[in-house]
Amino acid sequence: MEVVLVVRSADVNLQRVRYFLAVADELHFGRAAERLHMAQPPLSQQIRLLEGEVGVKLFDRTTRRVALTAAGEAFLPEAQRVVTAADSAERVMAEFRSGEGGLLRLGFVDSAAFEVMPRYLRAYRNRYPQVQHDLQIMSSSSQTDALRSGQIDIGISRTPGATEDVRTTRFRVEDLYFAVGPDSSMRKRKNASIATMDQHSFIGFDRRLSPSLHEQLQALFQRAGTTYEPVIEATEYTTILGLVASGEGAAIVPDGVRTFRPEGVQYIRMSDDGAVMSMYLNQRADESLRVVAQARELISELFS
């Protein structure tokens, strides 16, 4: 007859389940007690208490042998499953507390994808291989809300966090460059100003997704006595630079994006005063996750 044993795990002492498994493995109370580094009488008492918790007899005991009852046989695989799950949970939590494991949810602006993120991810995974990343591309303006709502744990943005409950650290300042196509009259120059680019139409990042970037470039052009009005706006730098390569216009990109080199695209450093763009690391001010602290320390180390 098949025996079905249903036990609510909340009613069962986990340590007693471990004792049960040791006795079930040895089928001898003396050897099991020795293996558990305890005396035999307390072990026998703990098994009796476990049998009281589950409401059935788990072992048949005689002076010569110990054997599992039918209920004990039914309980055995469930006991193994419960202990394995508990051990796994304890290991995960230990790794989580130490920073050796866990999940880090990171949001980053598109321009970080070309140099900053590859360098950071290689270094982090080499140092903490058990930590998993959930990566999300999002605009600077979206990251503060994402941090406050718990959608991400850390953000790499082009603007600092705008609220007191977000901690911000600037970790990188990049020169800005003009990206020009194969037909541009400026492509052989090493430096150029906004004024010298007046014959070029511009392709820009979508201002609806990144209003702060658009405002920064508008201010830069205004100081040069002109206006920044892209004729085409796109949502990714790969698209923008693909359009530049096709001869649709020029673009303005931060230094880190120059690692992406479509055929025919030439990068020319902007010579205007203030032609730089910062990159910030944002996190919740009360953040206590070790994986976040590790990310902050590593980014500071890589880009200081």
How is this structure best described in words?
This protein is an alpha/beta fold and 304 residues long. It folds into three domains: 9-98, Orthogonal Bundle (Arc Repressor Mutant, subunit A); 102-171 and 278-303, Periplasmic binding protein-like II (D-Maltodextrin-Binding Protein, domain 2, 3-Layer(aba) Sandwich), CATH 3.40.190; 174-277, D-Maltodextrin-Binding Protein, domain 2 (3-Layer(aba) Sandwich), CATH 3.40.190. It has helices spanning 14-26, 29-35, 40-54, 70-98, 116-127, 140-148, 211-223, 237-245, 290-303; strands at residues 59-61, 66-68, 102-108, 131-137, 154-157, 166-180, 191-192, 203-205, 232-234, 251-254, 266-270, 276-284. A hairpin with a 4-residue loop joins strand 1 (59-61) and strand 2 (66-68). Helix 1 crosses helix 3 (40-54) and helix 5 packs across helix 9.
SSE blueprint and pairings:
Elements: H1 14-26, H2 29-35, H3 40-54, E1 59-61, E2 66-68, H4 70-98, E3 102-108, H5 116-127, E4 131-137, H6 140-148, E5 154-157, E6 166-180, E7 191-192, E8 203-205, H7 211-223, E9 232-234, H8 237-245, E10 251-254, E11 266-270, E12 276-284, H9 290-303
Helix pairs in contact: 1-2, 1-3, 1-4, 5-9
Task: Name some characteristics of this structure.
single chain, 304 residues, Arc Repressor Mutant, subunit A, D-Maltodextrin-Binding Protein, domain 2, 3 domains, 8-stranded mixed sheet, 40% helix, rod-shaped
